[in-house]
């Protein structure tokens, strides 16, 4: 099928490339000519394991193309995906201007029937607004479908090709069947719902996962008070199939481009509809507080942080990505700096992006360099590289061997045997 993908960010680029991989003819549209030209040469601007090779393979096979030419791309496609950003506005609502701009651009080039598929995460009712925008310029037939994306950065390619489910929100059979055809080669449960349910499924899923994280973080804080081990508690809980072990990892709290904004947006959507979503308000409060738990632990080891040299391992919001949006690591660094600490940080791939938002932070070229002469090391992102460090070597490099493990990635007994003062979350 002929498909246009609007947006070449983490979702658009992965989705467009994977749709080409499963056999479709895909044109990826964006507004930046230079970026488009680089992508057309197979140069990928984001870090996502396996993506660059897949882009290059599908370019070569002639199934994938990058352009800024809206007119030709829209004219030639039956299916037009919108995968642009929907960041948080200062009041917590989802910023929809990029979605509406995309709809406006589509409307200018519509000449026949198309299905507009919204992959961006949007509040309930956005699909209808997209329809209204297109109808202002185009009076022919077309459909708007919601197909929310559930991929995780760091494993996005696999998540797209082997998802737990595909959700298709459509208000008629014709458009639902066309989108079902798009995903035909993907073997998984395909759920067809109405447009609004699909829009809400995405928010409800992310809000539920965020709730699980805040819940286990609350349990970890109780563990600290009573001397229990949150890892044991989470495992014991998770063995119950009704609960499950995933997303029960205590730490510095969730971050990234989705959970914080989607949880806030759902809380706002509820508010606009006259409903007070108390649980989500608490989830957000708990998450924000979790950043300071790490700082409190740092103070427990160091006393005042003023003038103290702290090495922070990790800048990305999670491992296997260079995305630093709403990263807990960045928040922790800012809190440490507020207390007067001097921070040197390291991340395997996210330093370049972090440099643009951080002030007064030295960026190290390796984890060992970040730990050199430090009085404390804080682990802020769960990169495997940090698990695999030679911690004996790290101990010798540090001025004082002290670690706050904000992600519970190290074995506490081993660390203590090595001679570290080691604190982690809820154990
Ligand atoms: N990143 C994730 O892990 C993830 C997972 C699931 C869903 N989502 C949702 O998918 C959507 C996209 O997220 P993302 O992380 O890919 O965002 P992103 O910021 O990485 O990418 C958005 C892209 O859209 C482009 N864009 C904006 N307006 C455009 C226009 N009019 N025409 C062409 N391109 C335009 C931007 O230049 C950018 O490249 C969001 O709604 C997000 O909530 C993201």
Brief descriptors of the model:
alpha/beta; Rossmann fold; six-stranded parallel sheet; 46% helix; 427 residues; 14 strands; 18 helices
Q: Give the oligomeric state.
A: single chain
What portion of residues belong to β-strands? Answer: 5-15%
Gross geometry: globular
**Main sheet overview:** 6 strands, parallel
Q: Give the number of helices.
A: 18
Question: Which CATH top level class of the largest domain fits?
Answer: Alpha Beta
Radius of gyration: 23 Å
Please give the number of β-strands.
Answer: 14
What's the CATH H-level superfamily name of the largest domain? NAD(P)-binding Rossmann-like Domain
Give a concise summary.
The protein has 427 residues and is α/β, with parallel strands linked by helices. It has 18 helices and 14 strands. It has 2 domains: 192 residues, NAD(P)-binding Rossmann-like Domain (Rossmann fold, 3-Layer(aba) Sandwich), CATH 3.40.50; 186 residues, Rossmann fold, CATH 3.40.50.720.
Task: Give a topology summary.
Layout: E1 2-6, H1 10-21, E2 25-29, H2 33-40, H3 51-60, E3 64-67, H4 70-76, E4 79-82, H5 97-108, E5 115-118, H6 126-137, E6 143-146, H7 156-161, E7 165-169, H8 173-182, E8 189-193, H9 195-226, H10 230-238, H11 259-272, H12 278-302, E9 309-313, H13 328-338, E10 342-346, H14 351-355, E11 362-363, H15 367-371, E12 376-379, H16 384-387, H17 391-397, E13 402-405, H18 412-417, E14 421-424
Parallel strand pairs: 1-2, 1-4, 2-3, 4-5, 5-6, 7-8, 9-10, 9-12, 10-11, 12-13, 13-14
Helix pairs in contact: 1-3, 5-6, 9-11, 9-12, 11-12, 12-13
């Amino acid at each position: 099928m002929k498909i246009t993908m609007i947006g070449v960010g983490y979702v658009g680029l992965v989705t467009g490339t994977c749709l080409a991989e499963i056999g479709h003819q895909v044109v990826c549209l964006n507004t930046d000519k230079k970026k488009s030209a680089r992508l057309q040469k197979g140069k990928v601007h984001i870090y996502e394991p396996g993506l660059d090779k897949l882009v290059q393979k599908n370019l070569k096979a002639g199934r994938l193309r990058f352009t800024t030419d809206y007119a030709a791309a829209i004219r030639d496609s039956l299916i037009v995906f919108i995968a642009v950003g929907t960041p948080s506005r200062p009041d917590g609502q989802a910023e929809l201007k990029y979605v509406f701009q995309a709809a406006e651009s589509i409307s200018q080039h519509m000449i026949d029937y198309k299905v507009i598929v919204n992959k961006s995460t949007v509040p309930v009712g956005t699909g209808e607004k997209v329809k209204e925008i297109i109808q202002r310029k185009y009076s022919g037939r077309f459909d708007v479908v919601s197909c929310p994306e559930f991929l995780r950065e760091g494993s996005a390619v696999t998540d797209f090709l082997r998802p737990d489910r595909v959700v298709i929100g459509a208000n008629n059979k014709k458009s639902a069947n066309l989108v079902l055809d798009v995903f035909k080669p993907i073997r998984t449960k395909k759920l067809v719902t109405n447009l609004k349910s699909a829009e809400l499924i995405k928010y409800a899923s992310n809000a539920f996962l965020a709730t699980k994280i805040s819940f286990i973080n609350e349990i970890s804080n109780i563990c600290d008070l009573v001397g229990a081990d949150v890892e044991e508690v989470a495992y014991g809980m998770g063995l119950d199939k009704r609960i499950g072990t995933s997303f029960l990892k205590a730490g510095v709290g969730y971050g990234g481009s989705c959970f914080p904004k989607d949880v806030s947006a759902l809380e706002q959507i509820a508010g606009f509809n006259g409903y007070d979503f108390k649980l989500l308000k608490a989830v957000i409060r708990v998450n924000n507080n979790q950043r300071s738990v790490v700082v409190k632990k740092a103070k427990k080891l160091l006393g005042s942080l003023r003038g103290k040299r702290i090495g922070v391992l990790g800048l990305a919001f999670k491992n296997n990505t260079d995305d630093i949006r709403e990263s807990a690591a960045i928040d922790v660094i800012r809190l440490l700096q507020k207390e007067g600490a001097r921070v040197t940080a390291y991340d395997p791939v996210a330093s370049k992006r972090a440099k643009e938002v951080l002030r007064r932070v030295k960026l190290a070229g390796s984890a060992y360099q970040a730990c050199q002469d430090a009085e404390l090391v804080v682990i802020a992102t769960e990169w495997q590289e940090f698990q695999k460090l030679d911690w004996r070597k790290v101990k010798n490099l540090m001025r004082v061997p002290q670690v706050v493990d904000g992600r519970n990635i190290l074995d506490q007994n081993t660390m203590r045997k090595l001679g570290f003062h080691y604190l982690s979350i809820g154990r």
